[in-house]
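Revision sheet: structure tokens.
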Amino acid sequence: MSTGWIVLGVIVIIVLFAFAAYNRLVALSQRVGQAFADIDVQLKQRHDLVPNLVETVKGYAGHERGTLDDVIKARNSAISAQGPAQVSAAENQLSGALGRLIALSEAYPDLKANANFQQLASELSDLENKIAASRRFFNNAVQEYNTGIQQLPAALFAGMFGFTRKEFFDLGASRGEVETVPSVKF
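Predicted:
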């Protein structure tokens, strides 16, 4: 009779561990989803800002059509991207195209002095900072989630419950550009 109670107690403890592990993994998974949604909100704001920026530049640098077309193409690609990996790659393309667009202002002093352009460039800079903060939060949430599914006792149940590893929001090919220090020449 006492052996039966011991076995029952062990089973109850295992079930409680499974419930606790499942609930923790659900919470971590939800945090990752919420963090990606935060990035998505910031990216949508950037996508809405891009056409205004392009139109402003078009008035001053209309013959720079290739750069303007690249920005619009990159924006459309970013809007249609799905999932962290595709969104990350598309947004990296858009960031590069926007960088080339902003660089045009150096060649056109009238554009650089335009109040509308300055406001849009300032908004873009602010959005880029918010996007970077959102990416850091997302990557932190992914790190906690991935760690959570690999730690005991959750590791024993994660696969059974369908929890799989999530991908980070990576800078990809543009990592080298981000890590190099810009040179300043006077």
